Amino acid sequence: MGSRIKQKNIVLALLLAIGITGSAYEAYQLRKIEGINHALQQGQLISGDAYPMQQKFTAAYQLGLHEDFKHAVQTYSQLLETGLSQSDQAKIQFNIGNNLFQSGLNRRINDDGTLKDEARYDFSQAKVAYQQALRLNPDSRLAKFNLSLLLSLLPENMVNAKKEQSGMELSNIPVGLP
């Protein structure tokens, strides 16, 4: 009977040691995650290789905050190539649309009041990004709102600027020569 009690005590002591070790590991992981969440909430860049997607996302977000929209869109586009879930892809497309929208708003208008070609391009690309975000997540209220806001700012019959004729035809024969 004494040996059975010793065996049970040994098994219980092992289970206790495993439980304490597991709890310590989970506490470490929780602390690490809280640190990442705190950095994200503060808008800080994430360092380390443990969370490459979040690190690239915060870098792109910071670029957008500093009005470097072109590089922010490039960084977000690189994230799309990493095989994210559909929900994450929708969020990335939404952020791409936001950066392009803001870039278009920062462009100046021509002297006659029309949009510059760069602004027109940014707005059309933002529209595509918002539509893609809605295809991936049709319930996104923010993407719907921003798309409707963008569409309300665009002229109804927005046409790309007329291109000057270069003087060359597709066959590389100059126009006007016999």
UniProtKB/TrEMBL annotation:
It comes from the Bacteria. This is MxaK protein. The lineage of its organism: Bacteria, Pseudomonadati, Pseudomonadota, Betaproteobacteria, Nitrosomonadales.
